[in-house]
Specification:
The structure holds 3 protein chains of 3 kinds. Chain A is built from 17 helices and 19 strands. By secondary structure, chain A is of the alpha+beta class. In chain A, strand 1, helix 3 and strand 2 form a beta-alpha-beta unit. The longest helix of chain A has 24 residues. In chain C, helix 5 packs across helix 7. The chains are: A alpha+beta, B alpha+beta, C mainly alpha.
Chain lengths: 638, 248, 230
């Protein structure tokens, strides 16, 4: 596998402009002769599909949900970052670039991260033009809030539903193009295989989830915008249908998979209450603007939070990280919470939570102000837990959230397979080893609206000559056969355990061994356990029904089968990185104060994995990270 | 707690369906309603039965994909709550719970409790957007929008597209869904110019999809998980009538 | 975009429902104002009411308005039928096995069609008993030589069942108006977040005055006029 990041020459601030000025273009009347498949209709997928269609390409857009509007970008609450400097607090593209790179513990590409910061301002303009109702100040100008890991206010928001509003903006742009006839929409379709012809991505095999029919779709380029795989932990903040199958199957066809184990555990989620639990709801990080996190100073304190006096509380984030306090980045806040919980200071019936307390903020600003800022979150909290957080502190706990890892892509967002692109959360992206809050919506939108529409032309300019791609090519027949065989195999096991059963077991195992903290021994044993579980899966799985009808269990089984392979890769990825950085915390590598010990001399690279066959150890490739503009420093939020 | 369920089973769009009884002897009150159905499905699969198909995805009340008619009410008995946010603690031990799909001829049943709501997408396709190109937009702060206007627009834009408004409407009207989008975009200066035309096109599509008319009963705003007001229907009517009166 | 104004879609049809409804509301005010003369002392009422009736039936303008009125009633009813049929189609063939939607809205809001049908039946009875008699039958004359509609009314209102019928019909009208008045404004899109509430209260006030005003007449006459006039 050859890894060429294709980073343009020139000073950091000039790279993207230079690229745009020199990349090849497809002339307007030729674009309609080129087909692009976009899998996924979240922010990245919808924005890319809409942009392509507006430019004149013919687009086929796929999602497994019943409507593009339901993709999980919809659930992002807090906001989207942009270096507009509306607050006059000294923000700039460079500062945002630096914050993002530092937040990611210097494990991302300078050029990509700078481009992200550079395009961020455009995104806000774009979203406002689409009618996204961002919060406004009384003078009518856009309002901002702060988010974890930064010291400026650069987060734009639409109450606690920013993701929804941005997605509906992209969805409306997508629909406008559907109406124009430039996008063909395939809702309730799941991509099950990537089709390669002569080493280039030329189409996909998809299953119509309403009929069970297997379909072939051809195009000149395939864009994966399928989101993250945090659901691999079963209990996560993700939607039930979120999965890693599209990228995993692309990986098995040759796409490099980068930094698989870098999964963000979000510090402010609702704790698990029982084994029936299907997901852990996220409470926006924005709550940490006004909420203070604490646990009792006494272990297993049986008192109610209100009965514990101020001097017997441990505001551990404020104590450990005085400069950032409750707004310490996610990885640090999660680890600190887990440390307290594991040490016996956890609260709640299962002793698996910490308090997020608004009493001070309510005292200072009044309940009405807090209600205006977070009303919907407080209400959501009450619906799920039955408790009123205006009167008693919320109980929160860390949960799996975002995957920084994903398909390796170059500067043009192309994977190691020519013609296959990965955008948004499903690529290994710009967040390094830890993503800052409100950068996820940003990256998805910037990839889809502002980057890929340019870079894809650079590839497609050469593809005009090949003409229409036919689905009669033997490669399609072969891929289709493979898909049908796998579905049949899953159905034929007829064992006694359900896919969810396996998923739960895998999730618990992975969270334990490859979650907030990892150890060499843990990871090694996890690999053995995952292999055993996988073998058991293929022997004892039970999938009811048939492939030719609606069959949710069959969908789940396929996704779990992929998770059982991806999990192993995650463990290899974590095992081979003998350092702690961002979300990857190896217990063997920590400072005396329990902070991450990064080892730049040996690990200043991205691990890119090549698939080597079933149950074979994957092959590690390295993309060295060169820092030309800034010097990596010890990441401190103290 | 012990729960008896009566659930609508229907093999496919064309088959005839019926209510089927299920017993769950051991339901934890902290479970969400959908987790209770998960438990039932796991049980059904183990005993060799066909699990119940139902729509859901995010399970935090925002994607709009879940939507069940529970005990005679869209999304069940709680106000401002989607099916996924409904918890079993709101039921009593020994309760019988009826579970049916959202019904409207524009929402055909796919299987069991799963329905096809693509009609909503087509209503948006008819005009639920601002005709702007991606990639080059004017500076975001160039047009100030009053705080209250932005808040009001948000209230309308908060629609999650679940279809509870249609399910509860005696006329199976999609006026609240359509009105919310028309109103959201009409309130903002960016969306105002094409507003009458948008209203006209979206209403025509709503009609073509076979939704009924609105008689302003207000049931929709009561069942809407986002509590969207029927005032937005009035605004849609205003925009529509403006188009009819002013059209050249 | 071309449109055939009357039939194209439900918003247009609903506009017609609203406009005809509001026109009928306006008519009710005038009708009530005229009828309140019945509450005058008997002799004076007889003279004035019969004079008023004659005025109405001979004025060209009033005649024109009355045709608009009949047309409105018919259109209102006809569109209601069309819309009801459409709602049935929209709901689809399969109803809910267990339906508690009634918990969400007041009953009269959901049953405008039934209330409307009852009203139509009442209007037919009402017109047969008074309008038809006045127009098409020989009627006794009063002292001034005018058709004595007052006496016909007074006689009718001396039957308890007839008074009861009227009072019930006015209640039906009241519930129809309670929703209809505000709904018409909503349908026409004449709303404003702030003044919306005023329209609602105006609707309640209007409904009360119309219902009480019309209902009080037969009751009053029943109790005050149980002697037939000469």
């Amino acid at each position: 596998m050859k890894l060429d990041a294709k980073i343009p020459e020139g000073p950091l601030q000039e790279k993207w402009n230079r690229y745009k000025a020199t990349c090849r273009l497809v002339s307007p009347n030729n674009k309609k002769k080129l087909d692009i498949i976009v899998v996924g209709t979240g922010l990245a997928g919808s924005s890319a599909a809409a942009s392509f269609a507006e430019m004149g390409y013919k687009v086929k857009s796929f999602c497994f949900q019943d409507s593009p509007r339901r993709a999980h970008s919809v659930a992002a609450q807090g906001g989207v970052n942009a270096s507009k400097n509306y607050q006059n607090d000294g923000d700039s593209a460079f500062r945002m670039f630096y914050d993002t790179l530092k937040g990611g513990d210097f494990r991302a590409r300078e050029a990509n991260v700078y481009r992200l910061a550079e395009c961020s301002a455009n995104l806000i303009d774009q979203a406002v033009a689409q009618g996204v109702p961002f919060a406004r100040e009384y003078g009518g100008y856009l309002a901002n809030r702060s988010f974890g890991g930064v010291q400026v206010r650069r987060t734009f928001y639409a109450r606690g539903q920013t993701g929804q509003q941005l997605l509906l903006g992209a969805y409306s742009a997508l629909n406008r193009q559907v109406a124009e006839g430039n996008i063909e929409l395939f809702a309730r379709h799941e991509m099950l295989e990537l089709v390669l012809i002569d080493g280039k991505a030329r189409g996909i095999i998809a299953r119509n989830l309403d009929t069970g029919k297997i379909e072939r779709h051809a195009a000149h380029a395939v864009v994966l915008a399928t989101g993250g795989y945090g659901k691999i932990y079963y209990l996560s903040t993700l939607a039930m249908g979120c999965n890693g199958s599209a990228i995993w199957r692309a990986h098995k066809k040759g796409a490099g998979f980068a930094s698989a184990s870098w999964t963000q555990i979000h510090p402010t989620c609702l704790p698990q209450s029982g084994d029936y639990q299907s997901k852990l709801t996220l409470m926006s990080e924005s709550l940490r603007n006004d909420g203070r996190i604490w646990v009792p100073q006494k272990a297993n304190d049986p008192r109610k939070p209100g009965d514990i006096p101020e001097d017997e509380r441990d505001y551990y984030l404020e104590r450990r990280y005085p400069a950032f306090g409750n707004l310490a980045p996610r990885d640090i806040a999660s680890r600190a919470a887990k440390e307290r919980i594991d040490a016996g200071f956890g609260v709640g019936p299962q002793r698996n939570a910490v308090y997020l307390d608004f009493a001070h903020a309510i005292q200072e600003y009044g309940e009405d102000t807090i209600r205006e800022r977070y009303g919907n979150l407080f209400r959501m909290y009450e619906k799920i837990t039955g408790h009123n957080a205006y009167q008693r502190p919320m109980m929160i706990s860390p949960a799996a959230h975002f995957s920084m890892g994903g398909l390796w892509v170059d500067y043009e967002l192309m994977t190691s397979i020519p013609g296959l692109y990965a955008i948004g959360e499903c690529n290994f992206s710009d967040h390094g080893a830890n993503r800052l809050g409100a950068n996820s919506l940003l990256q998805a939108c910037v990839d889809g609206y502002f980057i890929l529409p340019y870079t894809i032309g650079n590839y497609l300019a050469d593809e005009l000559r090949v003409g229409k791609i036919s689905t009669d090519h033997p490669a399609f027949a072969q891929a289709e056969q493979q898909v049908e065989a796998q579905l049949q195999q899953l159905l034929n096991i007829k064992g006694n355990r359900t896919a969810t059963d396996y998923h739960k077991e895998l999730g618990a195992l992975l969270y334990d061994k490859c979650g907030v903290q990892r150890t060499k021994e843990g990871l090694e044993s996890a690999i053995e356990q995952i292999r055993a579980l996988r073998a058991d899966f293929w022997e004892n799985l039970r999938v009811p029904g048939e492939a030719a009808h609606v069959n949710t269990e069959l969908e789940k089984a396929g996704r779990v089968a992929d998770y059982l392979e991806l999990a192993e890769l995650m463990c290899y990825d974590a095992l081979t990185r003998d350092e702690s950085c961002g979300a990857h915390f190896r217990e063997e590598f920590q400072t005396a104060e329990g902070e991450a010990e990064r080892r730049d001399e040996e690990y200043q690279f991205v691990s890119v994995w090549e698939y080597a066959g079933a149950s074979q150890q994957p092959v590690l490739h390295r993309e060295e990270l060169a820092f030309e503009t800034i010097q990596p420093s010890v990441r401190s939020y103290k | 707690m012990k729960i008896q369920l009566k659930i609508w089973r229907q093999e496919n769009a064309k088959a005839k369906g019926k209510m089927v009884d299920y017993d769950l002897p051991d339901v934890n009150p902290e479970m969400s309603f959908l987790e209770m159905l998960d438990v039932l499905n796991e049980k059904l699969i183990r005993s060799g039965d066909d699990p119940i198909e139902f729509d859901h995805d995010c399970r935090e009340g925002i994607c709009g994909q879940c939507g069940l008619f529970i005990n005679g009410r869209a999304h069940g008995p709680m106000s401002a709550t989607t099916t996924c946010q409904l918890h079993m603690r709101h039921f009593e031990d020994g309760d019988t719970i009826y579970v049916e799909p959202f019904r409207a001829s524009a929402f055909p049943v796919v299987k069991d409790l799963r329905i096809d709501r693509s009609a909503f997408d087509r209503i948006i396709q008819a005009g639920g957007f601002i005709s702007t190109r991606t990639g080059d937009a004017p500076e975001a702060n160039a047009i100030p929008i009053g705080h209250q206007t932005a808040e009001d627009a948000f209230d309308a834009a908060a629609c999650i597209g679940c279809g509870a408004c249609v399910a509860t409407c005696k006329n199976a009207s999609a006026a609240l869904f359509t009105g919310a989008k028309v109103s959201h975009l009409a309130m903002l200066p960016q969306g105002e110019p094409e507003s009458p035309e948008r209203a006209e096109k979206m209403v025509a599509q709503m009609e073509a999809e076979g939704f009924g008319h609105c008689t302003n009963t207000g049931a929709c705003e009561v069942e809407c998980p986002q509590e969207i007001s029927i005032e937005h229907i009035a605004r849609m009517n205003f925009e529509y009538n403006k188009a009819a009166v002013l059209e050249k | 975009m071309s449109r055939s104004l009357f039939l194209r879609d439900s918003v247009v049809r609903k506009n017609l429902m609203a406009l005809t409804g509001l026109f009928l509301c306006l008519f009710l005010v005038i009708h009530l104002a005229g009828n309140l003369q019945l509450l005058l002392p008997a002799e004076q009422a007889q003279v004035q009411y019969n004079h008023y009736s004659e005025l109405l039936s001979h004025n060209f303008f009033i005649k024109a308005v009355s045709y608009a009125l009949y047309a409105s009633i018919l259109a209102h009813a006809l569109y209601a039928l069309i819309l009801t049929r459409r709602a049935k189609q929209a709901r689809g063939p399969q109803g809910y096995a267990y339906d508690k939607r009634g918990q969400v809205t007041p009953w009269y809001v959901r049953n405008m069609g039934v209330l409307g049908a009852l009203l139509l039946a009442f209007i037919i009875i009402h017109m047969r008993d008074f309008w038809f008699q006045y127009k098409f039958t020989e009627m006794p004359l009063d002292a001034e030589g005018r058709k004595d509609l007052y006496t016909v009314v007074a006689v009718a209102y001396q039957q308890l069942w007839y008074v009861a019928l009227y009072v019930v019909a006015m209640l039906v009208l009241g519930f129809h108006l309670l929703h209809g008045f505000h709904s018409a404004f909503q349908t026409l899109g004449l709303y404003h977040s702030k003044y919306n509430r005023w329209v609602k209260w105006a609707g309640y006030g209007y409904t009360f005055i119309i219902t009480a005003g019309f209902a009080i007449i037969p009751i009053y006459m029943y109790f005050t006029q149980n002697q037939p006039l000469p």
